[in-house]
Structure to design on (257 residues):
């Protein structure tokens, strides 16, 4: 049995749906600015012997590229047409399909692992969990990962203040909602550093959903504040590369076999 994808990759009743939809409006900025994911985290999440995995909510393929180096077949599922176009351009080896966590155009019991990078907080678990369980083979793995800025580093904490975020959103990454029919969640954190050119760092800031949806004037003002921080903070002043510390928060849950 194959299910057809929803027209949109988000729930229209969800108050965050406009934010979720915003990424397609800035897919090129997202591609330039967003980091990849550390090898150690991906290898911990990936079940041994996996032959076919899904990158769900694949965006422009940041995680897809990492998976392709380790698994024979990767299917990228992404609701945004703009994001898919970027993904198909930069990751042509992956199979790309339109779909969402709540409705995937994939057969029952057809994949070994379902990866969701920086996206599970956008889904409706009541609808997404049964759909993921339908597509996974018995014994398959649901693998969730988020890159969270490490605010124990002083300049990163200051960045959140400048961006008028009290702290980096953890997006439920410490305790993601999954539940039955999956088994208990296992957790693992990987600290890592992503080095970026200054322009790419500013693209990363501009690719945040709440920044995309600001008015042009508000967006320019926020980016100017971030540039001032880079120019004046002792940890970033005068550096050609911006070293952004992250914690990759990983969760995995297995579908009973």
């Amino acid at each position: 049995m194959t299910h057809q994808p929803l027209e949109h990759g988000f729930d229209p009743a969800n108050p965050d749906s406009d934010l979720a939809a915003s990424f397609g409006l800035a897919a090129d900025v997202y591609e330039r600015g967003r980091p990849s994911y550390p090898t150690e985290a991906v290898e911990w999440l990936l079940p041994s012997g996996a032959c076919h995995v899904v990158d769900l909510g694949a965006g422009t393929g940041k995680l897809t590229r990492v998976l392709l180096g380790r698994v024979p077949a990767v299917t990228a599922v992404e609701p945004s047409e703009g994001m898919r176009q970027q993904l198909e351009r930069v990751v042509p080896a992956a199979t790309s399909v339109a779909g969402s966590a709540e409705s995937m155009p994939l057969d029952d019991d057809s994949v070994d692992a379902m990866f969701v990078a920086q996206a599970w907080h956008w889904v409706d678990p009541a609808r997404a969990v049964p759909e993921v369980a339908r597509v996974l083979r018995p014994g398959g793995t649901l693998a969730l990962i988020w890159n969270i800025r490490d605010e124990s580093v002083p300049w990163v904490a200051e960045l959140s203040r400048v961006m008028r975020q009290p702290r980096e959103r953890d997006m439920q990454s410490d305790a993601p909602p999954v539940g039955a029919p999956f088994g208990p969640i296992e957790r693992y954190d990987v600290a890592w550093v992503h080095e970026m050119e200054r322009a790419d760092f500013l693209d990363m800031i501009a690719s945040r959903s709440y920044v995309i949806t600001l008015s042009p004037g508000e967006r320019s003002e926020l980016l100017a504040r971030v540039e001032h921080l880079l120019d004046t903070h002792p940890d970033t002043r005068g550096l050609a590369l911006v070293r952004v510390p992250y914690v990759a928060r990983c969760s995995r849950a297995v579908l009973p076999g």
